[in-house]
């Protein structure tokens, strides 16, 4: 399998998640229609937990919600383990 597209896709989904958190923060400031918490959290599932967490910290958004903090930590650990496992299996068969 060719892995040449993995890194650009990984960066893209993380940027998307970061922007989504920023847009929701802007909407919260303007008291406009908001992005649902479910949609925000689901945006972190496809290996974009790093962008999601960075967005939380950068925009100071959803940082007091315990389930967002714990959920983002859990997803980052899970994503890191999956990435390391993938790299290990790829290197051991090379």
Count of strand segments: 0
- Give the number of helices: 4
Shape summary: elongated
Structural class: mainly alpha
The low-confidence parts are none
Strand content: under 5%
Integer-rounded radius of gyration: 15 Å
Describe the sheet with the most strands. none
Distance between the termini: 12 Å
How many domains make up the 3D coordinates? 1
Characteristics of this structure?
mainly alpha; elongated
Explain how this protein is built.
By secondary structure, the protein is an all-alpha fold. The chain has one domain (6-93). The protein is 74% helix and 0% strand. α3 runs antiparallel to α4 (66-93). It is elongated and about 50 Å long. It starts with 5 loop residues before the first helix and ends with a helix.
Topology of this structure?
Layout: H1 6-29, H2 37-43, H3 49-59, H4 66-93
Helix pairs in contact: 1-3, 3-4
Short description:
The protein contains 4 helices and no strands.
């Amino acid at each position: 399998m060719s892995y040449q597209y993995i890194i650009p896709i990984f960066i893209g989904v993380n940027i998307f998640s970061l922007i989504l958190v920023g847009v929701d923060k802007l909407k919260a400031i303007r008291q406009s229609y908001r992005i649902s918490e479910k949609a925000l959290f689901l945006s972190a599932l496809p290996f974009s937990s790093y962008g999601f967490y960075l967005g939380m910290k950068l925009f100071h958004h959803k940082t007091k919600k315990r389930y967002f903090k714990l959920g983002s930590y859990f997803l980052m650990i899970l994503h890191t383990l999956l990435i390391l496992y993938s790299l290990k299996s790829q290197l051991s068969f090379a």
